[in-house]
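Trying the structure run again after the queue cleared.
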Amino acid sequence: MKKNISLILGIILVFIILGIWVLSFVRMPYNPNEMNISNRFLGPGLDRDHVLGTDNFGRDILSRIMYGSRNVLLVALVSVTLGSLVGIFLGALAAILKGPVEKIIMRIMDGLMAFPGILLAMMLVAVLERGIKGSIAAISIFMVPVFSRLVYSMILDTENLLYIKAAKSYGSSKKQIFFKHYIPAMLPRLITQFSSSMGSAVMIETSLSFLGLGIQPPYASWGLMLSESRQFFLNYPYLAVAPGIAIIITILGFNLIGDGLNDILINRGSNHE
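Done. Tokens:
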């Protein structure tokens, strides 16, 4: 059996970010929000006190990258979890009940899907509030139609299978059929979608922070660090390198895991069938 390179590489990349996240609770080199004007724009170097250098306020970039991992992963995990739970519920409700309930739910989902992800998130944050709570709410709402349409289509695809018809003929309730038959059948796709959605959530959160709509100063966020480095980029390009690499590693890692899991849980399962 060939090794799944995508899954292995994705796990390695995500473990790097998770390692940074764990270390941020154990020990950070400096206070990520502490300013020291006398240490402004110190260049990076392994032989220096500030390995990744300092920013325009003299704050340690490595410490801010570590602290920023808390906020980025928190927003991504909570928003995708909330969005997936609500989306699964609404998608299942529409597919099982049908009729007016199906039309109302799916038309609302179609309306949400009509907006590009970052545009929808920007609109929602503007209406709600800036910061972590607003970002979580906005990204959660964006994730709802993704999971609802996925669950809706999968239930419709499986409701005519023989074991579903047999369960209905034996008098099983809709609730029993959903948890005993639909959920196990949908689980592989839901797992792969959850992993890919984590990458999308990180992208949206960092974009919101970059635009000044996400996590607010003085708290650290990778997108906010990129935004603050713009005016100094030509003279001090290292300011954007560290947060940029962190964003790329995180998004690429979750997407590769999703791709690898898709090959293992879905494609390979289809081949066996």
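Residues 269-273 have pLDDT under 50 and may be disordered. Worth checking whether this holds up in the mutant runs.
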